[in-house]
Amino acid sequence: MPHAKRAADDLTPLGKLDEGALHGLLGYQLAQAAILTTGVFTHAAGQPLELRPVEFTILQLVNENADITPGRLAKALAMTAPGITIWLDRLEGRGLVLRERSTTDRRAQNVSLTRSGQALVSQALKNVLAEERSVLQSLSEGERTMLLELLHKVARLRK
Amino acid sequence: MPHAKRAADDLTPLGKLDEGALHGLLGYQLAQAAILTTGVFTHAAGQPLELRPVEFTILQLVNENADITPGRLAKALAMTAPGITIWLDRLEGRGLVLRERSTTDRRAQNVSLTRSGQALVSQALKNVLAEERSVLQSLSEGERTMLLELLHKVARLRK
DNA sequence: TATTGTTATACTCTATAACTATA
DNA sequence: TATAGTTATAGAGTATAACAATA
Asked: A32, B37, B57, B112: which one has the fewest Cβ atoms less than 10 Å from its Cβ?
């Protein structure tokens, strides 16, 4: 007797499709939720400031971690080394980040933000935080906090 | 006084970078959590059954929604029409789905699974559910349920 | 020899525009 | 005219392999 009972809202948004077993799959629910947040990012910061989500994240991680290396950025974002090189090339070309050879290990590089990069990422962060808060109004403060904490807990399970 | 106090685990996984304000951004936490679930999917079903995440989701949505149309699939997955066409082409080429003209509206198509498609998606679902459960053991049953429900609530905010 | 990072190249995925056929 | 779906084409993003410099 497959899918006997089912909640009335056990559906995908737009399409109003029956999710069935997908309802209990974390990967699927993450992807569905990300459709919303990707739209929020694009509207609040991506389009007005010409930033891709990954570019924003790189800028913010550099902003919070002084003299970070491309290698550590690649690991944090689960990207390959050539991948991070290309993004840093673009950001450097726009005058948002600086790459300097490490003095202790001349193979490595220290990445930092320019004034312009700091200003841009600050504005982007402000915009996205505000729009997320606005869009997530139907969740209580407790629900938003709980959601972020649980996601953080999941993210930290990465080896 | 920027980022005054900060919890000891306010860090990204692998890189152990300071997330700072990113900690409170839903879009970022979703992306970080998805790195884990994408790995779980690939290991449990993607590689052994030669399925992309999007292919698995299409198969499962078709499985749960009889005679669904490509248009509705496209909306549910936030894809363009040419995008869904290509994925359905591939799945049909592998003998996993069937496309038949609708009798009531001859522009539309009814998508359904073949026996082979049903068997494959069932196996994939079983594999992924089992591995997610295994990987998420450090979360309590209540936490896993709460996380899925909150994500579903966020996903349904899509207009 | 191993590590950090770049370059070269090809592949996957996606998007837009133009098209066919039905309504 | 509008809608469902396809085809054609180009672009964005990513991965692998080969490389240079340093440890």
From this structure: B112
- Residue B1 falls within a domain, yes or no? no
Split into its structural domains, chain A has a count of 1
Q: Is B58 left (phi over 0), alpha (psi -120 to 50) or beta?
A: alpha
Asked if the structure places residue A32 within a domain, the reply is: yes
Strand pairing partners for A97? A113
Residue A69 belongs to a domain: yes
CATH number, domain with residue B100 = 1.10.10.10
Averages of pLDDT over each 10 residues, chain B, 159 residues: 50 71 96 97 97 98 94 96 98 97 96 98 97 97 97 93
Mean pLDDT of the A49-59 span:
98
Calpha distance A150→B29 (Å, rounded): 9
B89 CB-to-strand D distance under 7 Å: yes
Residue A25 lies in a domain: yes
Chain D nucleotides close to protein (CB under 7 A) are 3-9, 12-17, 21-23
Tell whether A8 is within 8 A of chain B (Cβ): no
Q: What domain range is A103 assigned to? A: 8-155
- Residue B5: the pLDDT is 46
User: Distance between CA A69 and CA A109 in Å, rounded?
Assistant: 5
Segments of chain A assigned E as strands: 97-101, 109-113
Interface of B with A in 119-138 (CB under 8 A): 125, 128-129, 132, 135-136, 138
Q: What is the mean pLDDT of chain A?
A: 92
